[in-house]
Amino acid sequence: MSDPLAPLATVLVVDDTPGNIDILTGVLAPTYRVKVATSGARALEVAAQDEPPDLILLDIMMPGMDGYEVIRRLKANPLTRRIPVLFITAKETPEDEQKGFDLGCVDYITKPISAPRVRARVRTHLALHDQNRALEAAVRDRTRELQETRLQIIQRLGRAAEYRDNETGMHVIRMSHASQIIALELGLPGQEAETLLTAAPMHDIGKIGIPDRVLLKPGKLDAEEWAIMRRHPEIGHGIIGSHPSPLLRMAAEVALTHHEKWDGNGYPRGLRGEEIPQVGRIVAVADVFDALTSVRPYKPAWTVEAAVEELKRGSGTHFQPQVVEAFLARLEDILAVTSAYRD
């Protein structure tokens, strides 16, 4: 049973003959909100308004822009491409019908107009359109849920590695948001920066593979122990593995390269300059800044001012200068993230 309080569906009737418009309006007006257009150009304008029609009845044979051209333009516009279009025509050959279906119409209503047929076809296709919109909304909701779940799983895996290292679990949240902010300042596309936000928490996942005697040692590491510790980027890269997912590819890249240095003195591969993937260069700055300004069992938190000076000193050696500049340009936003995700 239909909801008596639900808004009426809107049907746009497009025909250059006023008599045909009057007939169709008379058939539909008791049940639907009817808009009319007497030309193809006007139909395109009405269809693209803030409140587009739910369905279009479109005459084919019109002067100037015919129905075929109108539907081509409707389907080419992202704002109108999903509106179902029913052709109203006296052209009934299989070739004419195939042409309309190929262009994207969902049905034909032939002239002369039959009121019961018009009402039945309109009702059917509006119901299908509503079902499609409900399905699309459900898919969008499910996709958002899956994306959020994926992000939460990755963040928790990253936090697991941090906890094992006696570091704060919120570190991975702060540095991943800072990485996204820096990426946007550098001009990376929004989607790529969003992927980095999700991938960055995995940067130290390789610490899971470092023995406790090394990872949890309270004092300074000796040369052998340091060599073991320096394996964690490659371990992390191996844990994430090779996968066609852009997210996992980026996570593996970040895990492998976030300890490389601009001057080539980093590890594990001694990459130099732009040999280091851009995401690795970005995460290096975000990671070091948050580590410096956080309390650790072996050190107090540095002041923001001292940490900023350290990044400046490392610009051109440890860090790519442009990344440090982007960090400084967005320092206020990064500090807001630090405040929002305090330990």
Specify the overall morphology: elongated
Round the Cα radius of gyration to an integer and report it.
30 Å
Helix and strand string, N-terminal first? EHEHEHEHEHHHHHHHHHHH
Q: Largest beta sheet: what is the strand line-up?
A: 2-1-3-4-5
The CATH first-level class of the largest domain comes to: Mainly Alpha
How far is the first residue's CA from the last residue's CA? 54 Å
CATH superfamily of the largest domain: Hypothetical protein af1432
How many β strands by DSSP? 5
| SSE class | alpha/beta
What is the number of helical segments per DSSP (H or I, 4+ residues)?
15
- In total, the number of domains comes to 2
Largest sheet: 5 strands, parallel
- What's the pLDDT, averaged over the residues? 89
**Share of helical residues:** 55-70%
